[in-house]
Amino acid sequence: MLPEIYIMVACQNVEIIRAIRSIRVQRETLQIQEKIGIIDACGAEDERNMLNQKERTLKESLVSSQHLTADGLPRVISHHVPTDDNPKEYWITRVADNKKIKAATREALIDKLYDYYNEESKDSSFGTIFTAALFEKKITENPKANTLRKYKADFERYISPEFAKSDITKLTETEVKKYIQELVNRDHPKDKAFLAFKGVLNLAFIYAYRHKIIQSNPLDYISNKPYLKSCDTRKARSEEKIFSSKEIDSLTVEVRRRMEWKRFGGYYINGYAMLFAVLTGVRSGELCALQWKDIEDECIHIHAQQLSDEKKDGGTLYYYAPYTKNEKGVSEDGRDFPLTKKIKALLSEIKEKQNARNIVSEFVFCHEDGEWIKTDAYETFLRRLCRSRGFDITNNHAFRMSLNSNVLIPMGISVADRAAMLGHSIETNLKNYSFAQKDYISTVRALLDRDYEEGTQGNPDNVVIFPQKESSETLISQHF
Predict the structure, then answer these.
(1) Distance from C-alpha of 447 to C-alpha of 144, rounded to nearest angstrom
(2) Is residue 373 within 8 Å of 308, Cβ to Cβ?
(3) In this structure, how many other beta carbons lie within 10 angstroms of the beta carbon of residue 114?
(4) What is the distance, to the nearest Å, from the Cα of residue 398 to the centroid of all Cα atoms in its chain?
(5) CA–CA gap between residue 115 and residue 109 (Å, rounded)
(6) In this structure, what DSSP letter does residue 232 have?
(7) Residue 458, Cβ density class (10 Å: 0-12 exposed, 13-18 middle, ≥19 buried)
(8) Chain-centre distance for alpha carbon 81
(9) Which long-range contacts link 327-334 to residues 24+ away (Cβ below 8 Å)?
(10) Which of 45, 93, 100, 300 has the smallest set of CB atoms within 10 Å of its CB?
(11) Residue 346: what are its φ and ψ, rounded to 5°?
């Protein structure tokens, strides 16, 4: 990941080039206005001089930020005064490859350096424009840190090095469509993933168009429909999204086994966090932010989450956000989850372990020094644990869907209550969280066999006879 200072410089350079291009457009417009008489020659000359001075200042600024040594120091620009041996006046300097660049005037030398760096640094490459667009989004649209991270991850995932180096000013509609087609035909991404890829393209191209780096946006003429045909639009199968009851039992047994390891000494906090997630379906951020004061007599009050952001020095800052994911930055006092006997027993076990080790913390899931556990560390632990058991599913989110599909639905809990317990909408619960259990065949077969043996099927004594609906002709004949 590039340090923020380099991102800022790249963005500033793109802005300078955009401004210079804008000046050139203004100069062309001025020439047309002068030709058709909108502005007189004197006014046009004054305006032209002002534009030239602006362009000169911008070029000087750009060159000064790029014409540097490896140590970041300005490169020397020498002025040769005419002598008898060398009667020509000129300005000269060297660039990174030790190549000499020379011109008769300083202004002409700056022009040459501008052209050199504008070409060599590829300030109009798709990758540079995307970086500038993402930085602008960060400082102007108040996005969440996760949003910025996802954009970066999607860029790395979908944009090839070759495409990232492409000059965005030369990318035609045909070339972009060809790249999209190759990607969907090769990877067959989920439709959601395809839209994320399009989001990366949109961010860069809209920025380039809005800042007049390109004259038109090729995406304006590209429909998603032809490409979605090559995407994987089927609903995910149970085995791709949820754990079976046996798999969850396997994870639970493994966590309990590891608690006996000497290195953990019985206090395997990430393991305890996983056991809690299995029983409650909380998100990983909510899990890490849970405090002891949130454990009430009959329920667990889930109303906060742990979020993270990048530090200026390149580290990660974790912070407590007093709202859940679905509340989107504005607290609505969260949600309540029933405090069952099993959950209460687990929390009591954790508290006893903490008391025995003199661990003092406001957070339920904390290290021995009282520091709360971190989402990325917990998710890394879970991923490794699942892979050690040979599972393809390795994320905490699967516990939420597993609880909904394996426990809440079979218990007959209404969709409204399920949605309230898990913290999302009814539509989300039905569309994205409700799956057939992995072992539903054996479960349903056992139920059908039991009902058959009890006489529900094929036993006339258990059949309810409904009165047959009479035809209108019969009713008429009876009436008369």
Answers:
(1) 48
(2) no
(3) 21
(4) 18
(5) 10
(6) B
(7) exposed
(8) 58
(9) 329/144, 331/303, 333/303, 334/301, 334/302, 334/303, 334/304, 334/423
(10) 100
(11) -65, -45
Least confident of 178-182, 246-250, 461-465: 461-465
**Stretch (H or E) spanning 9:** helix 4-35
**pLDDT range class, residue 10, cuts 50, 70, 90:** low
Q: In what order do the strands lie in the sheet with 100-103?
A: 77-80, 90-94, 100-103
What does 422-439 look like in DSSP terms, one character per residue? Answer: HTS-HHHIIIII----TT
Inform me whether the pLDDT recorded for 198 exceeds 70: yes
User: What is the reported pLDDT for 136?
Assistant: 86
User: What phi and psi, each to the nearest 5 degrees, are found at residue 435?
Assistant: -125, 155
Confirm if 378 and 394 have CB atoms less than 8 A apart.
no
- Give pLDDT, residue 99: 87
Token readout for 120 is 């060599």
Which letter does DSSP use for residue 404 in this model? I
Q: What is the Cα–Cα distance from 108 to 90, expressed in whole angstroms?
A: 10
Place of tokens 């640094």: 121
What is the identity of the amino acid at 20? I
* pLDDT, position 433: 80
For residue 320, the model assigns a pLDDT of 95
Percent of the chain clearing pLDDT 90 (strictly above) = 51
The C-alpha atoms of residue 6 and residue 19 are separated, in whole angstroms, by 20
Q: Kindly give, in sequence order, each residue whose CB lies less than 8 Å from that of residue 151, ignoring residues fewer than 6 positions away.
A: 134, 137, 199, 200, 203
Nearest in space to 437 (alpha carbons), one of 416, 412, 410, 460: 410
Could you say which DSSP state residue 366 is in? B
Per residue in 350-401, pLDDT tens? Answer: 999 999 999 999 999 999 999 999 999 999 999 999 999 999 899 999 999 8
Angle at 171 between CA 17 and CA 165, to 5 degrees: 70
How far is residue 102's CA from residue 298's CA, in Å, rounded to a whole number? 81
CA distance 122 to 135: 18
| pLDDT, mean over the chain | 85
Angle between helices 126-140 and 145-158 (to 10 degrees): 170
